[in-house]
Design goal:
The complex is a heterodimer.
Chain A (H helix, E strand, L loop, with lengths): L2 E5 L2 E3 L5 E8 L7 E7 L5 E7 L5 E3 L7 E6 L4 E6 L8 E11 L3 E7 L3 E5 L2
Parallel strand pairs in A: 2-11
Antiparallel strand pairs in A: 1-3, 3-8, 4-5, 4-9, 5-6, 7-8, 9-10, 9-11
Chain B lengths: L8 E4 L5 E6 L9 E5 L6 E4 L13 E6 L2 E6 L8 E9 L2 E4 L3 E5 L1
Classes of the chains: A mainly beta, B mainly beta.
Chain lengths: ~120, ~110
């Protein structure tokens, strides 16, 4: 059974750093397309970052240079290092497992329960 | 950057059909995916590759995609279908979500 369990969220001041982790079971993180997706309070879903099975990484423009996605293959976990946090980064952060459809589509078949990040002074 | 637009809300009576649209430039040339999200819960995939249903998703959920518009249709809508629905596409190594549609079953 596929499971994704996020951790690491909390209250942090603007400019601070936080590291999120997503423990996966039932599949290998290193062999799949993994992403972080966030949802600000009362808002819609926003994709944040992805790491592909080959190791390539991608980010939404608003977090480039501040967030770093990585994998720990030995622990089968996905991580998101978030630096220089801003009030607008406040959101529930979901870990999601992706599926590739040929060369023209990727989607998410499993989601974690989310971890809350609050950036406030 | 690529954008997907959905109507903010759709109301439907129990047993009737709800249609949710998702508009984007040449969306029909891409695959569209749909997620259901109930309050306080994580999103759940209900349609993939335009019109396919994952295991466990009721047959009343169907999808189509052509031109600039993808459509999620819920036939014989039930009270349990009340939720927020998001479309999603993939463009230039980014996942794009629609603006979301709140479905209310009156």
């Amino acid at each position: 059974e596929v499971q994704l369990v996020e951790s690491g969220g909390g209250l942090i001041q603007p400019g601070g750093s936080l590291r999120l982790s997503c423990a996966a079971s039932g599949f290998s993180v290193s062999s799949n397309y993994m992403s972080w997706v966030r949802q600000a309070p009362g808002k819609g879903l926003e994709w944040v970052s992805a790491v592909y099975s080959g190791g390539s990484t991608y980010y939404v423009d608003s977090v480039k240079g501040r967030f770093t996605i990585s994998r720990d293959n030995s622990k089968n976990t996905l991580n998101l290092q978030m630096n220089s946090l801003r009030v607008e980064d406040t959101a529930v952060y979901y870990c999601a497992k992706g599926i590739r459809v040929g060369n023209s589509g990727y989607y998410f078949d499993y989601w974690g329960q989310g971890t809350v990040v609050t950036v406030s002074s | 950057s690529y954008e997907l637009t959905q109507p903010p809300s759709v109301s439907v009576s129990p047993g009737q059909t709800a249609s949710i649209t998702c508009s984007g430039d040449k969306l029909g040339s891409k695959f569209a995916f749909w997620y259901q999200q109930k309050p306080g819960q994580s999103p759940v995939l209900v349609i993939y590759q335009d019109s396919k249903r994952p295991s466990g998703i009721p047959e009343r959920f169907s999808g189509s995609n052509s031109g600039n518009t993808a459509t999620l249709t819920i036939s014989g809508t039930q009270a349990m279908d009340e939720a927020e629905y998001y479309c999603q596409a993939w463009d230039s190594n980014t996942y794009v979500f629609g603006t979301g549609t709140e479905v209310t079953v009156l």
